[in-house]
Amino acid sequence: MLDNPILRVTAKILFAPIIIFGLYVQFHGDYGPGGGFQAGVIIAAAFILHSLIFGLEAGRRLVPGWANLAMLACGVLIYGGVGVAGMMLDGLFLDYNVLASDASKGQHYGILLVEFGVGLTVTGVMLALFHAFAGFVEADYAATEDE
Amino acid sequence: MAGYVTNLLLLALLVFILVLVIRTRRLFPVVVLAGAYSLVSAAMFVNLDAVDVAFTEAAVGAGISTVLFLAAMAYLPGIEKTPPEAKGIGHILPALIICIIAGLLLVAAAIELPPVGDPTAPPHVHVAPRYLEESGSFLHIPNVVTTVLASYRGFDTFGEVVVVFTAGLGVLVLLAGFTRTARIAKSGKTGIDGGEGDDA
Amino acid sequence: MIGPVAQILESWNYLVVIALMMGGLFIVISQNNLVKKLVGLAIFQTSVFIFYISVGKMAGGTAPILTDGPETLYSNPLPHVLILTAIVVGVATTALGLALVLRIHAAFGSIEDDEVLAMKAEAAEPRARRGGDMGDAV
Question: What is the ipTM metric for this complex?
Fold first, then answer.
């Protein structure tokens, strides 16, 4: 797959639009179909396409393992952090009403942040899953070659 | 009416794919058929007004899930060894009996359910009207699924995100650093291989 | 069409979904191949999703994205939310199962559950000793 010019050029052209579409789904989720779960999967799909065409090594240079793990954890932390922020501002856990001057605006901010956390975690998990499964084969072949 | 006919056609397609999955021996077609099953059910979700769910099912079930299965299949044997039917009817009869009994019990329960689309059905009169009303008048967010997901049921979604996170970590723990484990397993594997040789 | 025929036509979705669910369950129970079992589990799961979404459908309704029309009927958003999250959790847990299958294949060289069980039974005797070896190797 690495040497096929059609696939390489197509992947290069598609990579950025897929991510833009993912961001659109992420931040337009309040007004149309979409949200963090879908956006996370779409953005992960862009990176998976990149790894499929240009190889796992190139994919890991683009998103190193530590960055991937950080994405996993940060998403959950952002979600929980929004909840704790509500408690700090004299509300309840995950109470968005107190996040801004009026309740409706606070809900908007809360939903946006929470969806962002969801998107980050889902992107990270899908990417980590792909690399774990695709990299598994390589690791095993390496082990067989050594012996 | 058109929606009803589409619904029937898609359900028939799902049954067809299911039969193919049961009958196919080679695992690559099985995995791809599972992706097709997800895609057809995504079409069904659109027909049943669940656009967000259809979006997710198409991206996750038909996309990522198939990619993961194929990535694993690159390593696993591509064909089922001995089909259960080949071992005689006695091998699949218990499974068949369990499925028929469970299915009949579920059917007995399902015919008591209110018909599909009935506006007076219990799920439609409890909390859903409040979500639909408040999302427009108080939150000013048109997509009610997003408000229920992130706000009304924020705890629920938090739990789901933690589950996704934990499952991801679980896979990483199971598969990461496999090179070392492979060597240890190989050094101990000869005993098992010997056992298999005795069988043959 | 009054009577049982009408009743069956109205809850047709439920009946077919139950058949699909039982098909998935049949695969999980009867097949020996672990990958096929996982596919059966995924089919079972997707069928349950269709059941939930059918419950949420409102006759003459539209997708629960608010429009300006005051008299618009919307389908129930609650099942959509439950299933939306369940799909993503489902793929994560399926991946966990697949990782276990990969490890089983690495340890036993087979993904047929009857073969794996037979190997485990045969290896039951020297197993304890091998555990000690593994400890030494680490």
Answer: 0.88
Q: From residue A89, give the alpha-carbon distance in Å to each of A83, A94, A106, B151.
A: 10, 11, 12, 17
| Region of A34 on the Ramachandran plot (φ > 0 left; ψ -120 to 50 alpha; else beta) | left
Q: Is the pTM of the predicted complex or chain greater than 0.90?
A: no
pLDDT at A2 over 70: no
List CB contacts of B173: < 8 A, sequence separation 6 or more: none
Question: What is the CATH topology of the domain spanning C4-106?
Answer: Helix Hairpins (1.10.287)
Best residue of A123, A127, A129, A144 to probe chain C, by most C CBs closer than 10 Å? A129
Please provide the DSSP assignment of B112-135 as one string: TSPPTB-TTSHHHHTTHHHHHHHI
Give me the mean pLDDT over the C53-74 stretch.
84
Neighbouring chains to A with at least 3 Cβ pairs closer than 8 Å: B, C
For range A60-75, the mean pLDDT: 91
**Residue A85 CB: number of other CB atoms within 10 A?**
19
Higher-pLDDT residue of C72, C102: C102
- Count CB atoms within 10 A of the CB of residue A93: 14
CB contact under 8 Å between B179 and A137, yes or no, is no
Beta-carbon contacts below 8 Å between B and C: 308
